[in-house]
Amino acid sequence: MRAVQVTEHGGPEVLHTVDVADPEPGPEELLVGIAASGVNFIDTYQRGGIYQVSLPFTPGSEGAGTVLSVGSGVHGFEIGDRVAWAMVPGSYAERAVVPASKAVALPTTLGERTAAAAMLQGLTAHYLTASTHAVKPGTVALVHAAAGGMGLLLTQLITLRGGHVIATVSTPEKERLAREAGAEDVIRYTEQDVTSRVRELTGGVGVHVAYDGVGRDTFDASLASLRPRGTLALFGAASGPVPPVDPQRLNSAGSVFLTRPTLAHHMLDRAELDWRVGELFDLITRNELRIRIGGSYPLADAADAHEALEGRRTTGKVLLEP
Ligand SMILES: NC(=O)c1ccc[n+]([C@@H]2O[C@H](COP(=O)([O-])OP(=O)(O)OC[C@H]3O[C@@H](n4cnc5c(N)ncnc54)[C@H](OP(=O)(O)O)[C@@H]3O)[C@@H](O)[C@H]2O)c1
């Protein structure tokens, strides 16, 4: 089969498409023919070596497709089933082995492209708004990079839960998308000062929660935008990692809470995965949550997909379609 391989850490140019042997499913695993793989920022951190992965490796940790064969001891899945997954390595390929424990069956009305686009970022937006900080009617939230893959999902979920979104974006087109997703206030953070604008918009009080996947460039503004006892959910580093933080800053900012959560700790068992996926797929199939696929590339153009994502040129989800 064809698969993308990284043999040395570096920029997008280290992503090469090569021929490799078809993987074999072991016990309690499925072999899946991949229809679409999601591209995520974590793939760029792994490619660049910010996150350690031993070389060589095939990037990609989510996708959707059709079961081609099943290993011993698999219950609940058979050949021909359509499935999706997140947090399984090796999805930039024509085929992947997926543990049955991480596979979810697709409802008949949900296409593979949409499912691949929804899994990792959708489950993340779910845990951030349901578990990290339970958004309820009246919650005021700051969402950075609101037209991105995570941003559009967070903005919609917060709005669906009755919250008020103050979004940040870099361009007029991204502002339009953030507003369409439900953001009531939008700050062009490349031109406006986020902290003072948030204070103005909230009558000087600040937000209950700041969702920050941008990291280094936005961290200080996120912290300074919280109301007393607010929460800063730092869930990524699109602009680079945040330098070490003195805990005393959390006191000065208003006895606030800082967390650096990750999806792996929010799908700890099958029941938790099924709960989050069930709510996510329900919202999508009822058309209440829209999945925007902003870009799609063949496997061989994975480098272009990474360049676009890191170059701030994408909106919504980026897919590879083998
Ligand atoms: N912790 C978790 O469980 C988890 C799971 C999924 C994703 N994430 C994180 O969520 C964040 C967003 O991921 P995504 O895949 O949805 O990406 P994305 O938001 O679609 O793309 C990143 C966006 O960040 C903004 N940005 C600001 N400064 C940037 C810079 N210097 N370089 C690149 N982008 C910059 C850009 O939007 P503007 O042009 O509007 O500024 C850009 O479009 C990432 O940090 C990722 O690691 C975390």
TrEMBL record:
This is NADPH2:quinone reductase. Keywords: NADP, Oxidoreductase. Signal peptide: none annotated. The keyword Zinc-finger does not apply. It comes from the Bacteria. One of its GO terms (cellular component) is cytosol. The keyword Oxidoreductase applies. It comes from Actinopolyspora mzabensis. SMART domains: PKS_ER. Coiled coil: none annotated. InterPro entries: ADH-like_C, ADH-like_N, ER, GroES-like_sf, NAD(P)-bd_dom_sf, QOR-like. GO terms for molecular function: mRNA 3'-UTR AU-rich region binding; NADPH binding; quinone reductase (NADPH) activity. Residues 10-320 form the Enoyl reductase (ER) domain.
